[in-house]
Amino acid sequence: MSNKEIHRCLKRYIVRELYPLILVDLADSTPLH
Q: CA 23, CA 25: separation in Å to the nearest integer?
């Protein structure tokens, strides 16, 4: 596995883990409804 591939996998993992948290954060701080 090359460095580039490792970084891509890491990024995908981080996005999958953090994206829902970020969305919840945004939903909390900015009431859209």
A: 5
CA distance 29 to 12: 25
Q: Where are the alpha helices (DSSP H) in the chain?
A: 3-29
Q: How many CA atoms lie within 13 A of 23 on its CB side?
A: 6
Percentage above 90 pLDDT, the chain: 58
| Digit-coded pLDDT (tens) for 1-11 | 899 999 999 99
Q: How far is CA 26 from CA 15, 19, 21, 31, in A?
A: 15, 11, 9, 8
Q: How far apart are the first and last CA of the chain?
A: 46
